[in-house]
């Protein structure tokens, strides 16, 4: 099959030297891409340029992305092409920066003009966080016939909460499958679809199941 795997974090710049990002290393997506390539599939790996995982990248094509909008553009560029499966494991930032405010000596805040480097002499700053677009919600429109597999990394709650979040992603984004994992889920992974759920104790078993989807 011809497939796309996304991996690693996006980031959102505060200015030219500071950014908002997350702790995703890109390891899981990279290893999935390696597995699929080793089993004879044509793989494009889209990986965050700030991913810290240093393992080998064996996909036939490897492209890096930076911000959420950059990843969105790179995925959209594949629309209209034959793509059998998209494994969207990238950790997309939930927020980008809006306006930045500084406090004056009277305790009042006013908006700062855009700057290549916000001065640390400004004292207390307030940063507005604006939700980023949900890329996964747009994939079905771009790839109507492609199998789309999303990820739901659940940090809070219990296993049932993680599974419900995965089911919500299926309903809201018209994806075919969602992989649930994270501290709320506990050890292992769960491959969730409208047909049911299946737990995998180790990542290798999950990869085998994901390969069969395409």
What does this structure look like?
Strand 12 and strand 13 form a beta hairpin. The termini are close together. The chain is built from five helices and 13 strands. It has two domains: 2-94 and 132-213, 3-Layer(aba) Sandwich (Rossmann fold), CATH 3.40.50.10300; 96-129, no CATH class. By secondary structure, it is α/β, with parallel strands linked by helices. It is 26% helix and 31% strand.
Q: Could you give the order of the helices and strands?
A: EEEHEEHEEEEHEHEEEH
What proportion of the residues is helical, as a percent range?
A: 25-40%
Uncertain regions spanning at least 5 consecutive residues: none
Return Rg in Å: 19 Å
At CATH level 2, the architecture of the largest domain is 3-Layer(aba) Sandwich
Major sheet details: 8 strands, mixed
Beta-strand segment tally: 13
- Terminal CA distance reads 6 Å
Mean pLDDT, to the nearest integer, reads 95
CATH class of the largest domain equals Alpha Beta
Question: Can you tell me the CATH topology of the largest domain?
Answer: Rossmann fold
């Amino acid at each position: 099959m011809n497939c796309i795997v996304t991996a690693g974090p996006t980031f959102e710049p505060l200015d030219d030297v500071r950014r908002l990002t997350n702790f995703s290393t890109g390891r899981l997506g990279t290893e999935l891409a390696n597995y699929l390539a080793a089993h004879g599939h044509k793989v494009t790996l889209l990986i965050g340029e700030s991913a810290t995982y240093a393992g080998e990248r064996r996909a036939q094509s490897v492209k890096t992305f930076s911000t959420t909008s950059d990843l969105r553009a790179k995925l959209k560029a594949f629309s209209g092409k034959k793509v059998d499966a998209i494994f969207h494991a990238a950790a997309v930032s939930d927020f980008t920066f809006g306006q930045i405010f500084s406090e004056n000596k009277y305790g009042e805040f006013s908006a700062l003009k855009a700057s290549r480097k916000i001065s640390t002499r400004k004292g207390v700053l307030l940063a507005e966080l604006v939700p980023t677009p949900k890329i996964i919600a747009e994939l079905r429109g771009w790839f109507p016939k492609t199998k789309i597999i999303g990820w739901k990394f659940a940090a809070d709650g219990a296993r049932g909460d993680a599974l419900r979040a995965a089911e919500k992603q299926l309903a809201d984004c018209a994806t075919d499958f969602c992989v649930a994992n994270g501290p709320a889920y506990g050890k292992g992974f769960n491959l969730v679809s409208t047909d049911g759920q299946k737990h995998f104790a180790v990542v290798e078993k999950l990869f085998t199941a994901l390969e069969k989807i395409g």
